[in-house]
Design brief:
The protein is mostly helical. It has a domain of 46 residues. Helix content is 80%, strand content 0%. It contains two helices and no strands. It is elongated, with a radius of gyration of 16 Å. The chain starts with 7 loop residues before the first helix and ends with a helix.
Length: 70
């Protein structure tokens, strides 16, 4: 839904979009870091955590795409 720029809901929607974008970027970054850094975790566990982070980031991306389409 598009709001007039003076509408307070437009500011809230913009902030929500920025926060979700930042959260998605941090999830992608943490997934890559967990997978690549030599952390003392068994490899299957590291792989599972990284994949879960990437799935969460993809879910946030889909949410942002759906909100932008409205």
């Amino acid at each position: 839904m598009k709001f007039h720029p003076d509408d307070p809901r437009a500011l809230a929607q913009s902030r929500r979009r920025v926060m979700l974008t930042a959260a998605g970027a941090m999830l992608v970054l943490s997934g890559i870091v967990i997978l690549l850094l030599p952390i003392r975790l068994p490899f299957p566990l590291r792989l599972a955590v990284a994949v879960i982070d990437l799935i969460a980031a993809a879910t946030i991306w889909v949410l942002l795409r759906q909100q932008a389409g409205r």
